[in-house]
Amino acid sequence: MKIFILRHGEAEHFADTDAERALTSRGRAESEAVARACKEQGFASFDKVLVSPYIRAQQTWQEISVHFSSASIVTCDDITPYGQSDQVFDFANALIEVEKLDSLLFVSHLPLVGYLTSEFVKDMTPPMFPTSGLVCIEYDPKTQNGEVLWHITP
């Protein structure tokens, strides 16, 4: 199966709270470019999409959703910047098993996206993600291990 991990697009530096930071026009454009590149890799749909409740992640999904179809889109409170990667990993594995998913997209934040990548790809140092960075992992739910197939940066 495929696991996709996407960091939100570039966001404004200031807002009343971190959760309220909105995408910049550059963040919207770069997210759109990454979505087009992902589609060029042959991916036009996801079985499930988990999106952080933070505005910049929600807006990132809104920007790229025109390029993809998804059977299920869920706002997930556990994938904010300081979500616990081991708990998200366990949750994802349960979803994969119960829902028989072939593809799962996370739209989230640093540092979680780096730590989550290293949960799915054992013995990998958590990578730094640029804004709008996307990684595709070939993942085996039986062994709970994967390998990075490709990554796209704006």
Automatic annotation (TrEMBL):
One Pfam family in the UniProt entry: His_Phos_1
Superkingdom of origin organism: Bacteria
CDD domains per record: HP_PGM_like
Keywords attached to this entry: Hydrolase
PANTHER family recorded: PHOSPHOGLYCERATE MUTASE-RELATED, SLL1549 PROTEIN
Protein name from the UniProt record: Phosphohistidine phosphatase SixA
Organism: Vibrio alfacsensis
